[in-house]
Amino acid sequence: MLQKRNKNKNVYYKIGDELSFRLADNKSKVSGEIIAFQDSVIVFKGFEVIVSKISSLYIDEKTRWWLRYKVEQLSFIVGGGYLLLDLINTCELNKDTLVVSGSLIGVGLVARALIGNRIKIKGRTKLRVIEI
User: Where are the domains of the chain?
Assistant: First the structure.
């Protein structure tokens, strides 16, 4: 379970899920399909990882819903939608519309560069093996 303390943001991983992560002593991306859980160990095909050694998880389909990762997607959609809607309504490109739309798309690009694609496991964010 990936848990953010004092928030309602929990993600549960189960056997068969694909998990990508970084280890504390290695900066490369490690991926694998979960085949079992033990006391504080996640077992993948060909290797095992102690949960406390994982320093960050890469964003996947289960963690994409976190709001900080939606800013990028929403900015692109709103910026493009605003431009398209104004173009349909007026049948011409307006300079003010281009500025607003371009700014929203720019926010999406900046969010993509600044936010990154990893969730760091530290502080309030914990990764645990639990039994359900």
Answer: 2-59+117-127, 67-115
Give the DSSP letter of residue 31.
Answer: E
pLDDT per residue, tens digit, the chain (132 aa), is 677 666 667 888 889 999 999 998 888 899 999 999 888 889 999 899 998 899 998 888 877 765 666 788 899 999 999 999 999 999 998 999 999 999 999 999 998 888 778 888 888 787 778 776
Structure tokens at 87: 């173009």
* pTM score: 0.65
CA distance 83 to 99: 10
CA–CA gap between residue 106 and residue 86 (Å, rounded): 18
The fold adopted by the segment(s) 2-59+117-127 is: SH3 type barrels. (2.30.30)
